[in-house]
Structure formats: C-alpha cells, structure tokens
Amino acid sequence: MDQASKLRSAILKKNKYNYVSEGNIDSNENPRVICISSGKGGVGKTNFTLNLALSLRQKGNRVLVIDADLGLANIEILLGIDIKYGFIDLVEDNVKIEDIMVEGPLGIKIISGGAGINEVADLPLYKINKILNNMIYLKQYVDFILIDTGAGISKSVMSFVLAAQEVIVVTTPEPTSIADAYALIKVITKKTNEKIINMVINRVDNKKEADTTFKKMEMVSKRFLNKPISYLGYISDDKNVRSSVKKQVPFMLNSPNCLASKDVENICDSLLGNTENKNKFNNFINRLSNLFLGG
C-alpha cells in the first residue's frame, strides 16, 4: 500500500493522539469549506474574507478563517493582532487545533497558515496524519471555514482551491483584474470542472458596473471554458473601507451601516441561500490529504 492509501485509511481512525474519529461526529454538523481567492493581488480579497466572516457570525454561524496567504499574515495586520502558532505547529506533540486558533472580533476563530504546502508534504506520514486528524476535529467548533489564499495560481494557492468544496473569486472592474480572474478560473476548470465557482466584484461605482463586469466574465467563461459561474454580489467603492483598514477595525464593525457593509450582508445572504455544498467536509479532508502528499 502506498503512502497516500495508508493516509486515507489512517486519518479517519482514532490514533495515539486521541483525536476524534469520523464515526464520533454528527454528519449534520459538517462545516462548509469555502476558498476565497483572486487572480491578482490588491483586489481586497482578505478584507472581504474577514468581513464576510463577521457577517456570517452576526447571523448566528460559528466561523473559522484560515489565513493561507502564506508568509504574509494579512488577517493579523487587518486586526492588529499577533498570532503565536501557525498551521505547521500542529506537528508538535503538545499543540492541538484549539491551541492554534485565535479568537477575533465577535468570537470568530482565526488560524494562520504559517508554512507552505511543500513543507507539509515533506513531513513524515504520522505528522501529516496528526495535522489532518486535528482538522477533522474542527467539526466540533465551526459551521463555516473560510480559507483566504494568496493571489495567483501558485501551487499553495491551487492546493487549497482544489481541496475546498466551493470557491469565491474576487475581482475588481479593472481590465487587468478581470483578465487575471479569468486566468484563475481557467486553471481551476482545467484541473476539475466540478468545482462551484462564485464571483464577487469589489470596488464598484454602482450596481450597473458590477453587473456589466460579471456578464463579461460569465460570457467568456461559458464560451471558452464551457464553465458556468455564479454571481454572489458586489461591494461598493466605499471610503469607509479604507478608513477601517487604517484603524485596523473591520468595516462591518467600524461602519455597520455603510454601503460596503450592506453589500457584504447581501453577499452573505446569497451564500447562505445556497446549501448545495453542505455536508461535504469529508471530501475536503480527503482531497487535502492527497495534496499534502503531492498527489
């Protein structure tokens, strides 16, 4: 049996670290795993992820944000906090999943990536197993896992994108941003045509500009990739967003009645209305195990 086969058999069993097994968890409580990515940097992806997490929390959901923009720690900067442990620290004997989760505003949980996929792939099997068993334990803590990746199509970005149940691609109306978003969708579609891809248009002047931008993306995606994409909504170009970033306070809390906050609420409602991907957390863990092993 090869290493990947051994891992798939091992991650769902109770092991010496005494983490919960698959059979001990109610499948109705499986979290939704959503990867938030962009083809181009600087489109407001991380800020959107953070404020979406807060909107989900305000609607009664338990939310975890995994900052997988490896090495940059953007979530920490936006909140003005310092995170001691990262994802890779789970390999230590005295560290468990609850130790690397930091509590953010409104009680959302945050995990810093801290290391690249290549570093995890080089670990011995039992250490990879420990990481994955810890991640299974997340079922006890959260309803939504939002994974904030880096921009572009690097190996670490695509690893999380391909493992997640669904993807949100963030773009702006700028031509370069649209082109890079299309490039990301193209790569995802070549890897798998089964992934549900949602789109959010950030920093728009008005609804018409947002709708026009999405229609362009929808047209080229259908024509050249034969891939339908879904429209979650848009976020207005709001001065309150920039003001909140300077204060290191999310705009959903700093300016709850501003245009951008209302826009994020609408996107959150659209997301909650789509339950097609509910209860597929096990698929995420299995895909992640293969990616960790370079499969």
Specify the helix fraction band.
40-55%
What is the oligomeric state here? single chain
Mean pLDDT across all residues, rounded?
A: 85
Give the CATH H-level superfamily.
Answer: P-loop containing nucleotide triphosphate hydrolases
Which residue ranges are poorly predicted, with pLDDT under 50 across at least 5 consecutive positions? 10-28
Helix/strand-derived class?
alpha/beta
The spatial strand order of the largest sheet comes to 3-4-2-5-1-6-7-8
Overall tally of structural domains:
1
Give an account of the 3D structure:
Strands 3-4-2-5-1-6-7-8 form an eight-stranded mixed beta sheet, sandwiched between helices. Helix 2 packs across helix 12. The protein is α/β, with parallel strands linked by helices. The radius of gyration is 19 Å and the shape is globular. It has a single domain (31-284), classed as Rossmann fold, CATH 3.40.50. The two termini are 15 Å apart. It has 13 helices and eight strands. Strand 7, helix 9 and strand 8 form a beta-alpha-beta unit.
Descriptors for this entry?
295 residues, alpha/beta, Rossmann fold, eight-stranded mixed sheet, 13 helices, 8 strands, globular
SSE diagram, text form:
Elements: H1 3-10, E1 32-38, H2 45-58, E2 63-68, H3 74-79, H4 97-100, E3 102-103, E4 109-112, H5 117-121, H6 125-136, E5 144-151, H7 155-163, E6 166-171, H8 175-191, E7 196-204, H9 207-225, E8 230-236, H10 239-247, H11 251-254, H12 259-273, H13 281-292
Parallel strand pairs: 1-5, 1-6, 2-4, 2-5, 6-7, 7-8
Antiparallel strand pairs: 3-4
Helix pairs in contact: 2-12, 6-13, 7-13, 8-9
